[in-house]
């Protein structure tokens, strides 16, 4: 479903960059993207509920991220 949504995004942007964008097609693709997004959200909720019922914490994913500590990202002259 994510691949379908990405495909629709490409199609949407291609239609918008045409010499004369067809507003009906653009609106149609936008509606299809909205439906796919809603379906993905529904699947996410079902998955979250299944995890909760199994006693599994969804967690925070990979976290906020950072460049890390230490001596990295300083260039070659900082030994």
Structure description:
The protein has 79 residues and is an all-alpha fold. It has a domain at 2-53: Up-down Bundle (Four Helix Bundle (Hemerythrin (Met), subunit A)). 58% of the residues lie in helices and 0% in strands. It contains two helices and no strands. Helix 1 (2-16) packs antiparallel against helix 2. The longest helix has 31 residues, at 23-53. The chain is flat, with a radius of gyration of 21 Å. It is found in: Periplasm. Keywords: Periplasm, Zinc. Pfam families: Metal_resist (PF13801).
Oligomer: single chain
Order of helices and strands: HH
Strand content: under 5%
Mean pLDDT score: 87
Query: What count of helical segments does DSSP give?
Result: 2
* CATH topology type of the domain at 2-53: Four Helix Bundle (Hemerythrin (Met), subunit A)
Low-confidence stretches: none
> How would the global form be characterised?
flat
**CATH top level of the domain at 2-53?**
Mainly Alpha
Q: Write down how many β-strands occur, each being a DSSP E stretch of 2 or more residues.
A: 0
């Amino acid at each position: 479903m994510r691949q379908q949504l990405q495909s629709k995004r490409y199609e949407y942007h291609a239609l918008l960059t045409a010499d004369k964008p067809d507003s009906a097609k653009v609106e149609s693709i936008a509606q299809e993207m909205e439906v796919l997004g809603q379906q993905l959200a529904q699947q996410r909720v079902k998955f979250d509920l299944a995890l909760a019922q199994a006693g599994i914490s969804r967690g925070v994913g990979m976290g906020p991220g950072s460049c890390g500590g230490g001596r990295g990202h300083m260039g070659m002259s900082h030994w």
